[in-house]
Design goal:
Blueprint (H helix, E strand, L loop, with lengths): L9 E6 L5 H16 L5 E6 L5 H11 L5 E2 L5 H5 L7 E5 L5 E6 L7 H13 L4
Parallel strand pairs: 1-2, 2-3
Antiparallel strand pairs: 1-4, 4-5
């Protein structure tokens, strides 16, 4: 799957790792965000390209987190997105353009972070 497949939707792309403390603090808010925006033109993509699938699955199961995870060769996706540290999150508008990016942990279900998503959703074409 590629981001081109998600055009027409607002996409939050989050880079994380199981060893990253701030990432682990942030992941539950991404689960809640995904639930909150169910049925709207929104897609959540989490990317972990430095760890094995078994490590990721074991962590998500133990933490009881239901998240879609894209896994690639080590550092391939992070390099393409110019990720400088973890967690790092990008907001992509419905036209496929990166509009915002942020380094560090956020609560994505409220405040300024959530308002940015709502702004992009308001711009998205409605089916």
């Amino acid at each position: 799957m590629s981001l081109r497949d998600l055009q027409g939707r607002v996409v939050l792309v989050n880079f994380w790792a199981t060893w990253c403390g701030p990432c682990k603090e942030e992941l539950p808010s991404l689960v809640k965000l995904r639930q909150k925006l169910a049925g709207r033109p929104f897609e959540l993509v989490t990317v972990n390209d430095g760890e094995s699938e078994s490590t990721i699955t074991r962590y998500l199961t133990r933490a009881k987190l239901d998240l879609p995870v894209w896994i690639g060769p080590p550092n391939s996706a992070a390099t393409g997105w110019n990720v400088q540290g973890l967690p790092m999150t990008f907001l992509v508008d419905s036209k496929g353009q990166v509009r915002y990016w942020v380094y560090g942990e956020r609560n994505w279900t409220e405040g300024e972070s959530y308002k940015l998503i709502e702004t992009l959703l308001a711009e998205a074409p409605h089916a």
